[in-house]
Every structure is written in C-alpha cells, then in structure tokens.
C-alpha cells in the first residue's frame, strides 16, 4: 500500500478528494491499480478493493466490469502508461466514488458507494496489485482532475485507426447509392493494431463457433511501413477479419490503402434485420481498398462499389454500488 495525498476540500468541507498517479517504468507481468483498506490488504488474490487493470474493473480477484479501458489499448497496462485514480467523498450525500484515468483519458466513474461502512475516505489507501514484477513512479499531486465523465475517444491521431466505431452510413453499387441501415440494428466496429502483437484468431465451425480460415498475427519486420489490424464487427453474429495496410503514406487524398482478409463469423441465426446487414457487410468488406480518419474524426472505408462511414463509439458503464 502507498501513502495517499492529503484530502483536498478547497471550497466545501463536505467534499474530500484523494488523487494519485502511477507511471509504469518497467512491467513484467500484470498490474491492477486502485484503492483498498488496510484490513482487506492481504496476500495475493485475497486482497479486496477497487482496481483497474487496463481492461477490467476488478475487486482484486474477480472482474466486475469487462472492457472498461480505452478500446485502442485492448486490455493492457504497459511501460510508459500513466494511470490516475481519483477517490471522491461527498459527506452530505454519504457517497464515495472512484474515477480512473488512462494516459490522460477519463474512463469515468467505476464505483459509487453509498453504504456508511464503505463510504469512508479515511479507510482507503492507494494500492497496487502486481502479478510479476513492476517498477513504477508514484505521485500524489495536490491538484484534482476537473472531469469525471467518460471520454474514451477512438483515436486522437488521424493516422491511427485503432478503437471502436459505430457504423452510421453505408453506400453500395457503382453509383454508391445509400444503403439505409435498419433503425433497429446497431453495428459496432472494433479495430485493434496488431503490428506489435502475436496470436491466432479463433478457428472452428458449428453453432457459436467461427467459420473461415485462421489468420496468424505477426509483428511487422524492421523497415516495413505496413501495419496489420484485427477487425471485428458485432451485429447479430461476431464477424472478424484482418486489415493489412499496403503503404504507410497513403494516396494523394490522404487515404491509406488496405486489403481485408477472409471474413470469419459465428453462425447463429440473427433476426431478419440483422441478417440483412450481415449479408451486406460480408459482400462489402472484401472490396474495400482504402480508409481514412477525416478531419471530423469519422472513419471512412472506401472501395469501388462500397463506402462505410463510422463515428467514434464510446461504451458507457453503470457505476458499481459495491465491490465485495
């Protein structure tokens, strides 16, 4: 456990705040960062508290919220990352909240405790839950964050495509006439940068499994400007493929040339509206040839007979009322 900053209440004696930041210097293993009470600080997974591990919100032994972290990080805290944790006590309301930050992005409120036994700021201490070895820098600044609203943008870099996107408009055919998405269908597209990761996409068939050929994730060779992304789209089924960039600099319009590999999909039978959209995507994805994040932050995927326009998607989570 770590020494917390002093409670801060600049203008309201009913409000107390604790805030600290952890910078990851070197990490070999996994780390979760948050708060715990001295009485619940125990060896290993027996510790109970309020933690964030780069992807999930946990109580020290079990995941309570899955996918809480930034979509472009895809579930990891790594060297150079800065994790902030803000504990806010509101005595008049009898509440205590915990807000997490990842590299300056506010992930939102993960916990909002109301029970008198749990909502006591003086009971909690900054805590690191490490599986492996970690070298970190700890700082408890006097200034508190000014926002607690979730603000996980898909990307701040117009040359990066990693993140989560919601398909909002589609066009098809030689004249690129609009294909109107059914209002009942929400299509979430997720792109993960695989340039520095390894692995194999799932394979197999049958109900609930993936159909299609596996794709091996590989690390780009030195001097190779190409990148590889994992593409997944959730409609009724989960559809997956890989996106390979053809050249780093793109074309004269700023687009990056791409090639999309074989489409894999689970094989559940969705409702008719979702089934129609899945057929459209299955036919359209292979013909896409380039993509760009425009000046408005929209992701545009384009081909000779298809165009798909997406806006950044931010998934919202309800704050947890307890952690036990």
What this model shows, in words?
The chain is mainly beta and 324 residues long. Helix content is 4%, strand content 42%. It contains one helix and 21 strands. Strands 1, 2, 3, 4, 5, 6, 7 and 8 form an eight-stranded antiparallel sheet that branches. Strands 9-11-15-16-17-19-20-21 form an eight-stranded antiparallel barrel. It is elongated, with a radius of gyration of 22 Å. The two termini are 19 Å apart.
Quick structural summary:
The chain has 324 residues and is mostly beta strands. The protein contains one helix and 21 strands.
Keywords summarizing the entry:
324 residues, mainly beta, eight-stranded antiparallel β-sheet, eight-stranded antiparallel beta barrel
The N- to C-terminal Cα distance equals: 19 Å
Q: Give a count of the beta strands, DSSP E runs of length 2 or more.
A: 21
Could you give the order of the helices and strands? Answer: EEEEEEEEEEEEEEEEEEHEEE
Radius of gyration based on Cα positions: 22 Å
State the secondary-structure class: mainly beta
- Strand content is 35-45%
Counting DSSP H or I runs of 4 or more residues, the number of helices is 1
Give a quick account of the main beta sheet: strands, pairing sense, barrel closure: 8 strands, antiparallel
The residue-averaged pLDDT reads 83
Level of helix content?
under 10%
Indicate the low-confidence ranges by residue numbers: 8-12, 196-223
Principal-axis shape equals elongated
């Amino acid at each position: 456990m770590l020494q917390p900053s002093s409670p801060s209440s600049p203008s309201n004696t009913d409000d107390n705040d604790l805030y600290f930041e952890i910078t990851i210097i070197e990490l070999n293993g996994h780390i979760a960062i948050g708060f715990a009470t001295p009485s619940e600080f125990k060896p290993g997974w027996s510790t109970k508290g309020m933690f964030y591990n780069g992807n999930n919100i946990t109580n020290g032994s079990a995941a309570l919220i899955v996918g809480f972290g930034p979509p472009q990080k895809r579930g990891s805290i790594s060297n150079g990352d800065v994790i902030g944790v803000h504990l806010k006590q509101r005595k008049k309301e009898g509440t205590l909240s915990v807000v997490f930050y990842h590299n300056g992005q506010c992930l939102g409120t993960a916990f909002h405790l109301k029970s008198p036994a749990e909502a006591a700021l003086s009971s909690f201490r900054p805590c690191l839950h490490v599986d492996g070895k970690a070298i970190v820098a700890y700082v408890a600044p006097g200034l508190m964050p000014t926002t607690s609203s979730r603000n996980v943008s898909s990307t701040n870099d117009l040359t990066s495509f990693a993140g989560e996107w919601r398909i909002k408009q589609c066009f098809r055919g030689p004249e690129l006439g609009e294909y109107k998405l059914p209002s009942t269908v929400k299509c979430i597209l997720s792109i993960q940068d695989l340039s520095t990761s390894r692995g194999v996409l799932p394979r197999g068939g049958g109900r609930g499994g993936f159909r299609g050929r596996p794709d091996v994730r590989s690390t780009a060779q030195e001097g190779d400007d190409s990148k590889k992304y994992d593409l997944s789209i959730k409609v009724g089924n989960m559809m997956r493929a890989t996106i390979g960039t053809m050249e780093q600099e793109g074309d004269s319009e700023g687009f990056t040339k791409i090639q999309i590999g074989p489409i894999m999909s689970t094989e559940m039978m969705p409702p008719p509206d979702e089934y129609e959209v899945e057929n459209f995507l299955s036919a359209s994805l292979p013909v896409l040839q380039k993509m760009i994040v425009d000046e408005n932050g929209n992701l545009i995927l384009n081909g000779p007979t298809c165009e798909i326009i997406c806006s950044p998607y931010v998934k919202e989570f309800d704050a947890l009322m307890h952690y036990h």
